[in-house]
Amino acid sequence: MELKTLIAKDLLSIRAVFFRPEEPFTWASGIKSPVYCDNRLTLTAPTVRTDVENGLSQLVRDNYPDVQVLMGTSTAGIAHAAITGHILGLPMGYVRSGAKDHGRKNQIEGRLEPGQKVVVVEDLISTGGSVLEVVNVLREAGADVLGIVSIFTYGMQKGLDRLAAANVRNVSLTDFDEIARVAAQEGYIRPEDVARLIAFRNDPSDESWMEARP
Questions:
Q1: Whole-number Å distance between alpha carbons of 47 and 86
Q2: CA separation, residue 33 to residues 28, 37, 115, 152, 178 (Å)
Q3: Which pTM was predicted?
């Protein structure tokens, strides 16, 4: 079985990615979404967690063989960076969303030397804003950011454009299209819902997909 299909099956089985096109969720931005994502649930599902961490390790080996340090995003990427770092025998740290206001006032936790080759570990890529903030902090600290590995990506055009503009590569274990396909195949959603889900992915601000009900 292809890795992206395995991970799609895993995430659906524990409802880490959960589709509800008939009763959309509301994001903080107000956008109506047919999908809910919580990849933190992988941490409490040992079999799925093993697949995810072995998969992330494989992505790092295959795509970033020169990596010297893994850096997790705060907070969702921290555990995945730690476990993947353990598997690969690599140092890891993480980047806070902001500098601490006490102690050494670190924003980067863990040892990072200027010039070190870094891969960022993230759980989810949507519009790319939060992970690019992490990349920028690491670059300002002198790191050579090779790219990102993530569990799941929506493949939204805004995110793709932002990553390209910042010259950052992302490699994900699975993506929105694959999970939608597997969800239909395994009966989580109806096959005719897939086109609606892809329409949402292509333009989340356009709610016409909600009217396109079979």
A1: 17
A2: 11, 10, 40, 16, 17
A3: 0.93
